[in-house]
Design brief:
Length: 642
Protein backbone atom coordinates (compact mmCIF):
# COMPACT_ATOMS: atom_id res chain seq x y z
CA UNK A 1 0.00 0.00 0.00
CA UNK A 2 2.66 2.46 -1.09
CA UNK A 3 1.85 6.08 -0.48
CA UNK A 4 -0.77 5.31 2.18
CA UNK A 5 -0.44 6.89 5.62
CA UNK A 6 -0.27 4.46 8.53
CA UNK A 7 -3.12 4.72 11.04
CA UNK A 8 -1.92 3.38 14.39
CA UNK A 9 -1.35 4.45 17.99
CA UNK A 10 1.00 7.23 16.91
CA UNK A 11 -1.90 8.78 14.98
CA UNK A 12 -3.83 9.41 18.18
CA UNK A 13 -3.02 12.86 19.55
CA UNK A 14 -3.80 13.71 23.16
CA UNK A 15 -4.33 17.42 23.76
CA UNK A 16 -3.09 18.31 27.22
CA UNK A 17 -4.53 21.07 29.41
CA UNK A 18 -6.01 23.87 27.33
CA UNK A 19 -4.47 22.81 24.00
CA UNK A 20 -7.86 21.63 22.75
CA UNK A 21 -9.34 25.10 23.24
CA UNK A 22 -6.60 26.81 21.23
CA UNK A 23 -6.80 24.22 18.46
CA UNK A 24 -10.63 24.27 18.17
CA UNK A 25 -11.78 27.60 19.69
CA UNK A 26 -15.06 27.58 17.76
CA UNK A 27 -16.22 24.57 19.75
CA UNK A 28 -16.13 26.66 22.93
CA UNK A 29 -17.02 30.23 21.91
CA UNK A 30 -18.91 29.72 18.65
CA UNK A 31 -16.45 31.44 16.27
CA UNK A 32 -13.23 33.43 16.09
CA UNK A 33 -14.97 36.46 14.58
CA UNK A 34 -16.08 39.57 16.49
CA UNK A 35 -18.93 37.50 17.88
CA UNK A 36 -16.51 35.02 19.47
CA UNK A 37 -14.25 37.84 20.64
CA UNK A 38 -17.08 39.55 22.53
CA UNK A 39 -18.09 36.16 23.91
CA UNK A 40 -14.90 36.16 25.99
CA UNK A 41 -16.26 39.13 27.94
CA UNK A 42 -19.63 37.45 28.41
CA UNK A 43 -18.03 34.30 29.84
CA UNK A 44 -16.25 36.29 32.56
CA UNK A 45 -19.25 38.56 33.23
CA UNK A 46 -21.51 35.51 33.55
CA UNK A 47 -19.34 34.25 36.39
CA UNK A 48 -19.75 37.57 38.19
CA UNK A 49 -23.51 37.46 37.58
CA UNK A 50 -23.59 34.01 39.15
CA UNK A 51 -22.10 35.60 42.28
CA UNK A 52 -24.98 38.08 42.18
CA UNK A 53 -27.52 35.26 41.87
CA UNK A 54 -25.93 33.66 44.90
CA UNK A 55 -26.49 36.90 46.83
CA UNK A 56 -22.88 38.11 47.16
CA UNK A 57 -22.42 40.71 44.42
CA UNK A 58 -24.35 43.85 43.48
CA UNK A 59 -21.89 45.70 41.20
CA UNK A 60 -19.87 44.62 38.17
CA UNK A 61 -17.48 46.88 36.25
CA UNK A 62 -16.54 46.11 32.64
CA UNK A 63 -13.74 48.20 31.14
CA UNK A 64 -12.39 48.16 27.59
CA UNK A 65 -8.80 49.26 28.17
CA UNK A 66 -6.82 51.45 25.78
CA UNK A 67 -4.29 48.64 25.17
CA UNK A 68 -7.02 46.40 23.69
CA UNK A 69 -7.56 44.30 26.80
CA UNK A 70 -10.72 43.99 28.90
CA UNK A 71 -11.12 44.16 32.67
CA UNK A 72 -14.08 42.64 34.53
CA UNK A 73 -14.32 43.37 38.25
CA UNK A 74 -17.00 42.43 40.78
CA UNK A 75 -17.57 42.77 44.52
CA UNK A 76 -18.49 39.14 45.09
CA UNK A 77 -16.84 36.65 47.41
CA UNK A 78 -13.71 36.34 45.27
CA UNK A 79 -12.54 33.15 43.61
CA UNK A 80 -11.36 30.65 46.24
CA UNK A 81 -7.60 30.91 46.71
CA UNK A 82 -7.10 28.20 49.33
CA UNK A 83 -5.42 24.87 48.62
CA UNK A 84 -7.29 22.52 46.30
CA UNK A 85 -7.00 18.74 46.53
CA UNK A 86 -4.89 18.89 43.35
CA UNK A 87 -2.13 20.48 45.44
CA UNK A 88 -2.43 24.00 44.07
CA UNK A 89 -4.56 27.10 44.72
CA UNK A 90 -8.22 26.61 43.71
CA UNK A 91 -7.93 29.76 41.59
CA UNK A 92 -5.30 28.15 39.39
CA UNK A 93 -7.42 25.03 38.99
CA UNK A 94 -10.31 27.20 37.80
CA UNK A 95 -8.21 28.98 35.15
CA UNK A 96 -6.21 26.02 33.84
CA UNK A 97 -8.65 23.11 33.95
CA UNK A 98 -11.68 22.54 31.76
CA UNK A 99 -14.88 21.62 33.58
CA UNK A 100 -13.65 22.96 36.91
CA UNK A 101 -15.58 25.43 39.04
CA UNK A 102 -18.12 26.03 41.77
CA UNK A 103 -21.01 25.46 39.35
CA UNK A 104 -20.82 21.73 39.95
CA UNK A 105 -21.40 22.19 43.66
CA UNK A 106 -25.09 22.90 44.29
CA UNK A 107 -24.14 24.35 47.66
CA UNK A 108 -22.10 27.15 46.05
CA UNK A 109 -24.58 28.16 43.35
CA UNK A 110 -28.30 27.32 43.26
CA UNK A 111 -28.61 28.71 39.71
CA UNK A 112 -25.77 29.36 37.30
CA UNK A 113 -25.22 30.28 33.68
CA UNK A 114 -21.71 28.81 33.62
CA UNK A 115 -22.93 25.25 33.80
CA UNK A 116 -20.08 23.61 31.88
CA UNK A 117 -17.27 25.09 34.00
CA UNK A 118 -15.17 26.03 30.96
CA UNK A 119 -15.69 29.82 30.77
CA UNK A 120 -12.71 31.11 32.77
CA UNK A 121 -10.26 28.53 31.46
CA UNK A 122 -11.37 29.07 27.84
CA UNK A 123 -10.89 32.83 28.09
CA UNK A 124 -7.46 32.20 29.62
CA UNK A 125 -6.51 29.80 26.83
CA UNK A 126 -7.50 32.31 24.13
CA UNK A 127 -5.74 35.30 25.68
CA UNK A 128 -2.21 36.49 25.02
CA UNK A 129 -2.06 37.39 28.70
CA UNK A 130 -4.36 37.35 31.70
CA UNK A 131 -4.01 38.78 35.20
CA UNK A 132 -6.27 37.65 38.04
CA UNK A 133 -6.60 39.61 41.29
CA UNK A 134 -8.63 38.23 44.17
CA UNK A 135 -9.59 40.31 47.23
CA UNK A 136 -10.18 38.29 50.39
CA UNK A 137 -9.72 39.08 54.07
CA UNK A 138 -8.26 42.52 53.38
CA UNK A 139 -5.53 41.10 51.13
CA UNK A 140 -5.12 41.18 47.33
CA UNK A 141 -3.79 37.98 45.75
CA UNK A 142 -2.52 37.80 42.16
CA UNK A 143 -1.93 35.23 39.43
CA UNK A 144 -0.78 35.74 35.83
CA UNK A 145 -0.96 33.68 32.65
CA UNK A 146 0.25 33.79 29.05
CA UNK A 147 -1.78 31.89 26.44
CA UNK A 148 -3.26 29.77 29.19
CA UNK A 149 0.03 28.90 30.87
CA UNK A 150 0.83 30.15 34.42
CA UNK A 151 3.84 32.46 34.59
CA UNK A 152 3.95 33.11 38.36
CA UNK A 153 5.62 30.81 40.82
CA UNK A 154 3.40 29.92 43.75
CA UNK A 155 4.47 29.72 47.37
CA UNK A 156 3.78 26.11 48.30
CA UNK A 157 0.90 26.11 45.80
CA UNK A 158 -0.71 29.30 47.11
CA UNK A 159 -1.03 32.71 45.43
CA UNK A 160 1.27 35.52 46.51
CA UNK A 161 -0.20 38.56 48.30
CA UNK A 162 0.45 41.78 46.36
CA UNK A 163 -1.39 44.38 48.42
CA UNK A 164 -4.13 45.24 50.86
CA UNK A 165 -7.74 46.16 50.17
CA UNK A 166 -11.12 46.54 51.81
CA UNK A 167 -13.98 44.28 50.83
CA UNK A 168 -13.86 41.24 48.58
CA UNK A 169 -14.19 40.41 44.91
CA UNK A 170 -12.43 39.35 41.71
CA UNK A 171 -10.70 41.43 39.04
CA UNK A 172 -9.73 39.80 35.74
CA UNK A 173 -7.85 41.53 32.94
CA UNK A 174 -7.26 39.69 29.65
CA UNK A 175 -5.89 40.52 26.20
CA UNK A 176 -7.34 38.40 23.33
CA UNK A 177 -4.81 36.44 21.30
CA UNK A 178 -4.39 38.00 17.85
CA UNK A 179 -3.17 34.66 16.47
CA UNK A 180 -6.57 33.15 17.28
CA UNK A 181 -9.09 35.90 16.49
CA UNK A 182 -9.77 37.49 13.11
CA UNK A 183 -10.25 40.85 14.86
CA UNK A 184 -9.16 41.83 18.37
CA UNK A 185 -11.12 45.06 18.82
CA UNK A 186 -14.18 44.51 20.97
CA UNK A 187 -17.46 45.82 19.53
CA UNK A 188 -18.73 48.13 22.25
CA UNK A 189 -22.33 48.43 21.01
CA UNK A 190 -22.83 44.66 21.23
CA UNK A 191 -21.15 44.48 24.63
CA UNK A 192 -23.31 47.31 26.02
CA UNK A 193 -26.45 45.66 24.68
CA UNK A 194 -25.59 42.40 26.42
CA UNK A 195 -24.74 44.13 29.70
CA UNK A 196 -27.94 46.21 29.59
CA UNK A 197 -29.90 43.05 28.92
CA UNK A 198 -28.29 41.43 31.96
CA UNK A 199 -29.46 44.23 34.27
CA UNK A 200 -33.03 43.87 33.00
CA UNK A 201 -32.86 40.23 34.05
CA UNK A 202 -31.35 41.14 37.44
CA UNK A 203 -33.12 44.26 38.75
CA UNK A 204 -30.91 44.53 41.86
CA UNK A 205 -27.65 44.42 39.89
CA UNK A 206 -25.65 47.44 38.65
CA UNK A 207 -23.16 47.12 35.78
CA UNK A 208 -20.79 49.96 34.96
CA UNK A 209 -19.37 49.91 31.43
CA UNK A 210 -16.35 52.06 30.57
CA UNK A 211 -14.60 52.36 27.22
CA UNK A 212 -11.11 53.84 27.62
CA UNK A 213 -10.02 53.28 24.03
CA UNK A 214 -8.84 56.39 22.24
CA UNK A 215 -11.64 57.99 20.27
CA UNK A 216 -14.32 55.83 21.90
CA UNK A 217 -14.24 57.10 25.48
CA UNK A 218 -17.51 56.73 27.37
CA UNK A 219 -18.92 55.52 30.68
CA UNK A 220 -22.43 54.06 31.01
CA UNK A 221 -24.15 52.72 34.12
CA UNK A 222 -26.85 50.09 33.68
CA UNK A 223 -29.41 49.52 36.43
CA UNK A 224 -33.00 48.46 35.71
CA UNK A 225 -35.10 48.20 38.90
CA UNK A 226 -38.24 47.35 36.87
CA UNK A 227 -36.59 44.18 35.59
CA UNK A 228 -38.05 42.47 32.55
CA UNK A 229 -41.09 44.75 32.67
CA UNK A 230 -38.72 47.57 31.81
CA UNK A 231 -37.20 45.32 29.13
CA UNK A 232 -40.56 44.93 27.39
CA UNK A 233 -41.24 48.68 27.74
CA UNK A 234 -37.93 49.38 26.02
CA UNK A 235 -38.71 46.99 23.16
CA UNK A 236 -42.12 48.60 22.68
CA UNK A 237 -41.12 52.21 23.30
CA UNK A 238 -41.97 53.34 19.76
CA UNK A 239 -44.99 51.05 19.30
CA UNK A 240 -48.73 51.52 19.82
CA UNK A 241 -49.57 49.28 22.80
CA UNK A 242 -53.03 47.64 22.88
CA UNK A 243 -52.73 46.00 26.32
CA UNK A 244 -51.28 46.87 29.69
CA UNK A 245 -48.10 45.22 30.86
CA UNK A 246 -48.98 41.66 31.94
CA UNK A 247 -46.29 40.41 34.34
CA UNK A 248 -46.14 37.46 36.70
CA UNK A 249 -43.68 35.16 38.40
CA UNK A 250 -43.70 31.94 40.35
CA UNK A 251 -41.76 28.84 41.34
CA UNK A 252 -42.31 25.20 40.41
CA UNK A 253 -40.15 22.31 41.67
CA UNK A 254 -37.15 24.60 42.26
CA UNK A 255 -37.49 26.43 38.94
CA UNK A 256 -38.10 30.18 39.23
CA UNK A 257 -40.14 31.77 36.44
CA UNK A 258 -40.47 35.46 35.55
CA UNK A 259 -42.63 36.58 32.60
CA UNK A 260 -43.62 39.95 31.11
CA UNK A 261 -45.99 40.34 28.14
CA UNK A 262 -47.47 43.27 26.25
CA UNK A 263 -49.32 43.47 22.93
CA UNK A 264 -48.82 46.11 20.24
CA UNK A 265 -50.86 46.93 17.16
CA UNK A 266 -48.15 45.91 14.70
CA UNK A 267 -48.28 42.48 13.00
CA UNK A 268 -45.26 40.83 14.54
CA UNK A 269 -44.14 38.67 17.45
CA UNK A 270 -41.05 39.04 19.60
CA UNK A 271 -40.61 36.37 22.25
CA UNK A 272 -37.23 36.21 23.96
CA UNK A 273 -36.18 33.43 26.32
CA UNK A 274 -33.47 33.44 28.99
CA UNK A 275 -32.24 30.75 31.34
CA UNK A 276 -30.00 31.76 34.24
CA UNK A 277 -29.40 35.11 32.49
CA UNK A 278 -28.24 33.45 29.26
CA UNK A 279 -30.14 34.49 26.11
CA UNK A 280 -31.41 31.39 24.31
CA UNK A 281 -31.53 32.59 20.70
CA UNK A 282 -33.08 29.33 19.51
CA UNK A 283 -35.61 29.21 22.35
CA UNK A 284 -36.15 25.89 24.03
CA UNK A 285 -38.52 24.09 26.37
CA UNK A 286 -39.34 27.18 28.45
CA UNK A 287 -40.53 29.04 25.34
CA UNK A 288 -42.48 26.01 24.13
CA UNK A 289 -44.21 25.62 27.50
CA UNK A 290 -45.14 29.30 27.64
CA UNK A 291 -46.54 29.36 24.10
CA UNK A 292 -48.53 26.16 24.65
CA UNK A 293 -50.16 27.47 27.81
CA UNK A 294 -50.81 30.95 26.44
CA UNK A 295 -52.50 29.64 23.28
CA UNK A 296 -54.72 27.26 25.25
CA UNK A 297 -55.81 30.01 27.65
CA UNK A 298 -56.71 32.51 24.92
CA UNK A 299 -58.73 29.92 23.00
CA UNK A 300 -60.50 28.95 26.22
CA UNK A 301 -61.48 32.56 26.98
CA UNK A 302 -62.48 33.17 23.34
CA UNK A 303 -65.01 30.33 23.59
CA UNK A 304 -66.13 31.27 27.08
CA UNK A 305 -66.81 34.84 25.88
CA UNK A 306 -68.64 33.59 22.78
CA UNK A 307 -66.12 35.08 20.35
CA UNK A 308 -65.28 31.63 19.00
CA UNK A 309 -68.41 29.63 18.15
CA UNK A 310 -68.76 25.85 18.25
CA UNK A 311 -68.22 25.63 14.49
CA UNK A 312 -65.11 27.84 14.57
CA UNK A 313 -61.62 26.41 14.64
CA UNK A 314 -59.29 27.42 17.45
CA UNK A 315 -56.83 30.24 16.87
CA UNK A 316 -53.39 28.95 15.98
CA UNK A 317 -50.45 29.71 18.23
CA UNK A 318 -49.18 32.23 15.66
CA UNK A 319 -52.60 33.92 15.63
CA UNK A 320 -52.55 34.27 19.41
CA UNK A 321 -49.03 35.69 19.43
CA UNK A 322 -49.74 38.29 16.76
CA UNK A 323 -48.59 41.58 18.28
CA UNK A 324 -46.97 39.93 21.31
CA UNK A 325 -43.76 41.12 22.92
CA UNK A 326 -42.74 38.71 25.66
CA UNK A 327 -39.75 38.05 27.89
CA UNK A 328 -39.51 34.65 29.60
CA UNK A 329 -36.76 34.31 32.18
CA UNK A 330 -36.17 31.14 34.20
CA UNK A 331 -33.67 30.33 36.91
CA UNK A 332 -32.97 26.60 36.77
CA UNK A 333 -30.77 24.70 39.26
CA UNK A 334 -29.54 22.22 36.63
CA UNK A 335 -30.06 23.55 33.09
CA UNK A 336 -29.18 21.56 29.99
CA UNK A 337 -28.30 23.46 26.84
CA UNK A 338 -27.63 22.43 23.28
CA UNK A 339 -23.99 23.43 22.83
CA UNK A 340 -21.52 25.43 24.92
CA UNK A 341 -22.93 28.73 23.61
CA UNK A 342 -26.28 27.81 25.24
CA UNK A 343 -28.57 28.82 22.37
CA UNK A 344 -31.39 26.40 23.27
CA UNK A 345 -32.72 25.09 26.60
CA UNK A 346 -33.42 21.36 26.70
CA UNK A 347 -34.97 20.67 30.16
CA UNK A 348 -38.46 19.17 29.96
CA UNK A 349 -39.23 20.26 33.52
CA UNK A 350 -38.85 23.86 32.35
CA UNK A 351 -41.78 23.35 29.98
CA UNK A 352 -43.86 21.92 32.84
CA UNK A 353 -42.97 24.87 35.05
CA UNK A 354 -44.02 27.40 32.42
CA UNK A 355 -47.28 25.61 31.64
CA UNK A 356 -48.19 25.37 35.32
CA UNK A 357 -47.31 28.93 36.30
CA UNK A 358 -48.54 30.59 33.09
CA UNK A 359 -51.91 28.85 33.31
CA UNK A 360 -52.46 29.71 36.98
CA UNK A 361 -51.29 33.31 36.80
CA UNK A 362 -53.00 34.26 33.54
CA UNK A 363 -56.34 32.79 34.59
CA UNK A 364 -56.13 34.81 37.79
CA UNK A 365 -55.20 37.97 35.86
CA UNK A 366 -57.73 37.64 33.02
CA UNK A 367 -60.61 36.90 35.40
CA UNK A 368 -59.96 40.33 36.90
CA UNK A 369 -59.04 42.08 33.63
CA UNK A 370 -61.45 40.86 30.98
CA UNK A 371 -60.80 43.86 28.71
CA UNK A 372 -57.16 42.83 28.44
CA UNK A 373 -57.97 39.32 27.23
CA UNK A 374 -60.51 40.76 24.78
CA UNK A 375 -57.80 43.00 23.31
CA UNK A 376 -55.54 39.97 22.84
CA UNK A 377 -58.35 37.99 21.21
CA UNK A 378 -58.95 40.91 18.85
CA UNK A 379 -55.28 40.71 17.79
CA UNK A 380 -55.70 36.97 17.21
CA UNK A 381 -58.85 37.58 15.12
CA UNK A 382 -57.02 40.04 12.89
CA UNK A 383 -54.17 37.58 12.43
CA UNK A 384 -56.57 34.74 11.59
CA UNK A 385 -58.28 36.86 8.91
CA UNK A 386 -54.97 37.75 7.32
CA UNK A 387 -53.83 34.13 7.54
CA UNK A 388 -56.96 32.85 5.82
CA UNK A 389 -56.86 35.46 3.07
CA UNK A 390 -53.16 34.82 2.49
CA UNK A 391 -53.66 31.07 2.45
CA UNK A 392 -55.38 31.09 -0.94
CA UNK A 393 -52.69 33.28 -2.47
CA UNK A 394 -50.02 31.06 -1.00
CA UNK A 395 -51.62 27.85 -2.21
CA UNK A 396 -51.95 29.24 -5.74
CA UNK A 397 -48.33 30.30 -5.65
CA UNK A 398 -46.87 27.10 -4.25
CA UNK A 399 -49.08 24.37 -5.71
CA UNK A 400 -47.71 24.75 -9.22
CA UNK A 401 -44.11 24.83 -8.08
CA UNK A 402 -43.86 22.58 -5.05
CA UNK A 403 -43.07 19.45 -7.03
CA UNK A 404 -41.19 21.03 -9.93
CA UNK A 405 -37.53 21.81 -9.53
CA UNK A 406 -37.43 23.96 -12.67
CA UNK A 407 -40.84 25.61 -12.33
CA UNK A 408 -39.55 29.18 -12.38
CA UNK A 409 -38.95 30.59 -15.83
CA UNK A 410 -36.29 33.00 -14.54
CA UNK A 411 -34.23 30.33 -12.86
CA UNK A 412 -31.28 28.86 -14.71
CA UNK A 413 -30.90 25.78 -12.59
CA UNK A 414 -27.89 23.59 -12.02
CA UNK A 415 -27.69 20.00 -13.20
CA UNK A 416 -26.94 18.39 -9.83
CA UNK A 417 -29.68 17.54 -7.33
CA UNK A 418 -27.21 17.13 -4.46
CA UNK A 419 -28.31 20.04 -2.26
CA UNK A 420 -25.15 19.83 -0.12
CA UNK A 421 -23.03 20.82 -3.13
CA UNK A 422 -25.37 23.17 -4.99
CA UNK A 423 -25.49 26.94 -4.70
CA UNK A 424 -27.79 29.61 -6.09
CA UNK A 425 -26.78 33.18 -6.96
CA UNK A 426 -29.38 35.92 -6.61
CA UNK A 427 -28.16 38.33 -9.29
CA UNK A 428 -29.25 41.92 -9.83
CA UNK A 429 -30.30 42.70 -13.39
CA UNK A 430 -30.59 40.82 -16.67
CA UNK A 431 -27.15 41.96 -17.89
CA UNK A 432 -25.27 40.55 -14.89
CA UNK A 433 -27.60 37.55 -14.92
CA UNK A 434 -26.67 36.83 -18.54
CA UNK A 435 -22.95 37.00 -17.82
CA UNK A 436 -23.38 34.84 -14.71
CA UNK A 437 -25.27 32.18 -16.68
CA UNK A 438 -22.42 31.94 -19.17
CA UNK A 439 -19.68 32.04 -16.53
CA UNK A 440 -21.07 29.59 -13.96
CA UNK A 441 -20.33 25.94 -13.35
CA UNK A 442 -23.59 24.50 -14.68
CA UNK A 443 -23.24 21.34 -12.62
CA UNK A 444 -23.51 22.99 -9.21
CA UNK A 445 -24.33 26.68 -9.70
CA UNK A 446 -27.83 28.05 -10.34
CA UNK A 447 -28.53 31.65 -11.36
CA UNK A 448 -31.68 33.58 -10.46
CA UNK A 449 -31.79 37.13 -11.84
CA UNK A 450 -34.06 39.68 -10.17
CA UNK A 451 -35.13 43.04 -11.50
CA UNK A 452 -33.95 45.96 -9.41
CA UNK A 453 -35.00 46.43 -5.82
CA UNK A 454 -37.42 43.90 -4.40
CA UNK A 455 -40.32 44.80 -2.15
CA UNK A 456 -39.41 46.04 1.34
CA UNK A 457 -41.19 43.37 3.38
CA UNK A 458 -40.77 45.37 6.59
CA UNK A 459 -43.34 47.89 5.29
CA UNK A 460 -45.56 45.64 3.15
CA UNK A 461 -48.71 43.68 3.99
CA UNK A 462 -48.72 39.92 3.57
CA UNK A 463 -50.85 39.88 0.42
CA UNK A 464 -48.39 42.24 -1.30
CA UNK A 465 -45.44 40.12 -0.20
CA UNK A 466 -47.01 36.96 -1.58
CA UNK A 467 -47.98 38.66 -4.83
CA UNK A 468 -44.49 40.03 -5.53
CA UNK A 469 -43.00 38.25 -8.56
CA UNK A 470 -39.38 38.44 -7.40
CA UNK A 471 -40.20 37.07 -3.94
CA UNK A 472 -42.29 34.26 -5.41
CA UNK A 473 -39.40 33.39 -7.71
CA UNK A 474 -37.02 32.99 -4.76
CA UNK A 475 -39.48 31.00 -2.65
CA UNK A 476 -40.14 28.65 -5.56
CA UNK A 477 -36.43 28.25 -6.29
CA UNK A 478 -35.36 27.54 -2.71
CA UNK A 479 -38.04 24.85 -2.33
CA UNK A 480 -38.47 25.07 1.44
CA UNK A 481 -41.48 27.40 1.64
CA UNK A 482 -41.59 30.29 4.08
CA UNK A 483 -42.92 31.31 7.47
CA UNK A 484 -45.09 34.39 7.37
CA UNK A 485 -45.80 34.72 11.08
CA UNK A 486 -49.39 33.52 10.79
CA UNK A 487 -48.66 29.84 10.31
CA UNK A 488 -45.60 27.73 9.63
CA UNK A 489 -44.82 26.47 6.14
CA UNK A 490 -41.03 26.44 6.20
CA UNK A 491 -39.03 23.22 6.08
CA UNK A 492 -35.26 23.70 5.99
CA UNK A 493 -34.75 20.04 5.05
CA UNK A 494 -36.26 20.79 1.63
CA UNK A 495 -33.74 23.52 0.82
CA UNK A 496 -32.29 22.80 -2.62
CA UNK A 497 -29.03 24.74 -2.23
CA UNK A 498 -26.41 24.71 0.49
CA UNK A 499 -25.41 28.29 -0.33
CA UNK A 500 -27.72 31.17 -1.21
CA UNK A 501 -25.40 33.91 -2.47
CA UNK A 502 -26.52 37.51 -2.90
CA UNK A 503 -24.58 38.92 -5.85
CA UNK A 504 -25.24 42.65 -6.19
CA UNK A 505 -23.20 45.54 -7.55
CA UNK A 506 -20.51 47.03 -5.31
CA UNK A 507 -22.30 50.38 -4.99
CA UNK A 508 -25.00 52.03 -2.88
CA UNK A 509 -27.85 50.56 -4.92
CA UNK A 510 -26.30 47.12 -4.69
CA UNK A 511 -25.99 47.47 -0.91
CA UNK A 512 -29.65 48.49 -0.72
CA UNK A 513 -30.71 45.47 -2.76
CA UNK A 514 -28.65 43.21 -0.50
CA UNK A 515 -30.31 44.76 2.56
CA UNK A 516 -33.79 44.23 1.12
CA UNK A 517 -32.98 40.58 0.41
CA UNK A 518 -31.56 40.05 3.90
CA UNK A 519 -34.70 41.63 5.39
CA UNK A 520 -36.81 39.15 3.41
CA UNK A 521 -34.74 36.19 4.57
CA UNK A 522 -34.64 37.35 8.20
CA UNK A 523 -38.38 37.99 8.50
CA UNK A 524 -39.72 35.07 6.45
CA UNK A 525 -36.95 32.44 6.30
CA UNK A 526 -34.74 33.13 9.34
CA UNK A 527 -33.43 29.56 9.54
CA UNK A 528 -31.59 30.15 6.26
CA UNK A 529 -29.44 32.67 8.15
CA UNK A 530 -29.32 30.90 11.52
CA UNK A 531 -28.13 27.67 9.86
CA UNK A 532 -25.46 29.43 7.79
CA UNK A 533 -26.86 29.17 4.25
CA UNK A 534 -26.85 32.88 3.31
CA UNK A 535 -23.79 34.63 1.85
CA UNK A 536 -22.97 37.96 0.23
CA UNK A 537 -20.59 37.93 -2.74
CA UNK A 538 -17.77 40.47 -2.65
CA UNK A 539 -17.10 41.54 -6.27
CA UNK A 540 -14.09 43.77 -6.95
CA UNK A 541 -14.37 47.49 -7.64
CA UNK A 542 -11.26 47.71 -9.82
CA UNK A 543 -8.94 45.78 -12.07
CA UNK A 544 -5.36 47.01 -12.35
CA UNK A 545 -3.81 46.45 -15.78
CA UNK A 546 0.00 46.93 -15.74
CA UNK A 547 1.60 48.67 -18.70
CA UNK A 548 4.07 45.82 -19.03
CA UNK A 549 2.33 42.99 -20.86
CA UNK A 550 4.50 40.44 -19.04
CA UNK A 551 2.77 41.27 -15.76
CA UNK A 552 -0.68 39.99 -14.85
CA UNK A 553 -3.58 42.21 -13.88
CA UNK A 554 -4.88 42.32 -10.32
CA UNK A 555 -8.35 42.77 -8.90
CA UNK A 556 -8.87 45.26 -6.06
CA UNK A 557 -11.95 45.02 -3.89
CA UNK A 558 -12.18 48.48 -2.37
CA UNK A 559 -10.67 51.97 -2.33
CA UNK A 560 -8.33 51.05 0.53
CA UNK A 561 -6.82 48.27 -1.60
CA UNK A 562 -6.36 50.71 -4.47
CA UNK A 563 -4.60 53.23 -2.22
CA UNK A 564 -2.26 50.48 -0.96
CA UNK A 565 -1.54 49.35 -4.52
CA UNK A 566 -0.61 52.89 -5.55
CA UNK A 567 1.88 53.10 -2.68
CA UNK A 568 3.56 49.77 -3.41
CA UNK A 569 3.61 49.89 -7.24
CA UNK A 570 5.53 52.73 -8.87
CA UNK A 571 5.26 51.48 -12.46
CA UNK A 572 2.54 52.81 -14.74
CA UNK A 573 -0.79 51.01 -14.97
CA UNK A 574 -4.29 51.57 -16.25
CA UNK A 575 -7.35 51.12 -14.08
CA UNK A 576 -10.66 49.55 -14.98
CA UNK A 577 -13.53 50.42 -12.62
CA UNK A 578 -16.56 48.16 -12.49
CA UNK A 579 -19.68 50.22 -12.02
CA UNK A 580 -21.67 47.00 -11.99
CA UNK A 581 -21.42 43.26 -12.43
CA UNK A 582 -22.90 43.65 -15.90
CA UNK A 583 -19.66 45.32 -17.03
CA UNK A 584 -17.67 42.14 -16.41
CA UNK A 585 -17.36 39.57 -19.14
CA UNK A 586 -18.09 35.93 -18.21
CA UNK A 587 -14.41 35.12 -17.68
CA UNK A 588 -13.93 38.04 -15.28
CA UNK A 589 -17.13 37.22 -13.41
CA UNK A 590 -16.03 33.61 -12.98
CA UNK A 591 -12.58 34.35 -11.64
CA UNK A 592 -13.70 37.13 -9.26
CA UNK A 593 -17.14 36.12 -8.01
CA UNK A 594 -18.14 32.59 -9.04
CA UNK A 595 -15.00 30.45 -8.81
CA UNK A 596 -15.03 28.75 -5.35
CA UNK A 597 -11.23 28.69 -5.35
CA UNK A 598 -10.79 32.45 -5.82
CA UNK A 599 -13.98 34.28 -4.95
CA UNK A 600 -14.67 36.15 -1.72
CA UNK A 601 -17.86 35.48 0.23
CA UNK A 602 -19.16 36.85 3.51
CA UNK A 603 -21.38 34.53 5.50
CA UNK A 604 -24.33 36.32 7.08
CA UNK A 605 -24.58 35.64 10.82
CA UNK A 606 -26.82 36.86 13.61
CA UNK A 607 -25.11 37.34 16.95
CA UNK A 608 -28.00 38.89 18.87
CA UNK A 609 -31.55 38.10 17.72
CA UNK A 610 -33.05 40.98 19.67
CA UNK A 611 -30.60 43.52 18.25
CA UNK A 612 -31.10 42.14 14.74
CA UNK A 613 -34.86 42.52 15.03
CA UNK A 614 -34.59 46.04 16.43
CA UNK A 615 -32.11 47.13 13.77
CA UNK A 616 -34.19 45.63 10.95
CA UNK A 617 -37.27 47.48 12.18
CA UNK A 618 -35.29 50.71 12.62
CA UNK A 619 -33.58 50.75 9.22
CA UNK A 620 -36.33 49.18 7.10
CA UNK A 621 -39.54 50.19 8.90
CA UNK A 622 -41.92 53.11 8.51
CA UNK A 623 -40.71 55.27 11.41
CA UNK A 624 -38.43 57.85 9.73
CA UNK A 625 -37.12 60.11 12.58
CA UNK A 626 -35.35 57.33 14.56
CA UNK A 627 -33.76 56.06 11.36
CA UNK A 628 -32.52 59.52 10.43
CA UNK A 629 -31.13 59.96 13.95
CA UNK A 630 -29.32 56.60 13.78
CA UNK A 631 -27.80 57.34 10.36
CA UNK A 632 -26.50 60.74 11.50
CA UNK A 633 -25.05 59.23 14.68
CA UNK A 634 -23.26 56.38 12.89
CA UNK A 635 -22.41 57.93 9.52
CA UNK A 636 -18.69 58.12 10.29
CA UNK A 637 -18.24 54.63 11.68
CA UNK A 638 -20.52 52.52 9.49
CA UNK A 639 -19.14 49.07 8.87
CA UNK A 640 -20.74 45.96 7.41
CA UNK A 641 -19.90 43.13 9.78
CA UNK A 642 -21.65 39.93 8.68
Amino acid sequence: MAGKTEYNASSIKVLEGLEAVRMRPGMYIGSTSTRGLNHLIYEIVDNSVDEHLAGFCDTIRVTLENDGSCTVEDNGRGIPIDMHEKGVSAERVVFTTLHAGGKFDNKAYSASGGLHGVGSSVVNALSTRMTVNVKKGGIIYEDRYERGEPVMKLDKGLLPAVGKSKGSGTRINFLPDDTIFEKTRFKSEDVKSRLHETTYLNPELTIVFEDKREGSEETVTFHEPEGIRGFVKELNKSEDAVTDMIAFNGQYEGIKVDVAVQYIRDFREETLGFCNNIFNSEGGTHITGFKTAFTAIINSYARELGILKDKDQNFTGADVRNGMTAIISVKHPAPRFEGQTKTKLDNQDAAKALIQITTEELERYFDRNVEQVKAIIECAERAAKVRNSAKKVKENMLTKSRYSFDSNGKLSNCESRDASRCEIFIVEGDSAGGSAKMARDRVYQAILPIRGKILNVEKATMDKVLANAEIKAMINAFGCGFSEGYGQDFDITKLRYDKIIIMADADVDGAHISTLLLTLFYRFMPDLIYEGHVYVAMPPLYKVIPQKKSEEGEYLYDDAALAKYRKTHKEKFSLQRYKGLGEMDPEQLWETTLDPARRRLRQVQIEDGRMASEMTGLLMGTDVPPRREFIHAHATDAELDV
